[in-house]
Amino acid sequence: MHLYETIFIARQEMSPAQVESLTQSLTEILKESSATVGKTEYCGLRTLAYPIKKNKKGHYVLMNITASSEALNELDRRIRLNEDILRHMNVLVDEHENEPSALLKASRYGREESEKEQNARRPRTPSGRAPRPEADASDTQ
Questions:
Q1: What CATH number belongs to 2-94?
Q2: Which SS3 state, helix, strand or coil, does residue 71 take?
């Protein structure tokens, strides 16, 4: 048995619940072939670098799999037949990471940074409140 990381991108029109059920069906396919699925991460709806089949966004899912090459070939075949999956990639790894993936960390880090940037751009008074807009001399006449 080999260790794999499989990541796939699902269509943007799907809801997170539908992506979860798709992930469960792929897990069942692997269990039929006596493979095991360790960690499964839903990384959210993210913007793609370029449009794929007219989709500008996609749901990213990462799965840690322990399987034989035959089981992975069957999973690969079923993924290629599924129209809801835009792209996928299987990578052979030496060991699975128990920490959150870099993709999940990047999405969390990006949200935190954007909130910090928005707060930094807002002008503040010494009391911490946003200043009131001052009336122009032309507005009073």
A1: 3.30.70.60
A2: helix
Identify whether the C-beta of residue 122 lies closer than 8 Å to the C-beta of residue 59.
no
Mean pLDDT of the chain: 82
Cβ–Cβ under 8 Å, residues 25 and 91: no
Q: How far apart are CA 63 and CA 24, in angstroms?
A: 11
Residue 47: name the closest of 58, 36, 62 by CA.
58
Query: Domain coordinates of the chain in residue numbers?
Result: 2-94
Pairing mode, strands 55-67 and 2-11: antiparallel
Cβ-defined contacts of 14-22 (< 8 Å, 24+): 14/59, 14/84, 16/42, 16/45, 16/59, 18/84, 19/59, 19/61, 22/82, 22/84, 22/85
CB-based contact 4:91 (threshold 8 Å): yes
Give the tens place of pLDDT for each residue, 9-38: 999 999 999 999 999 999 999 999 888 998
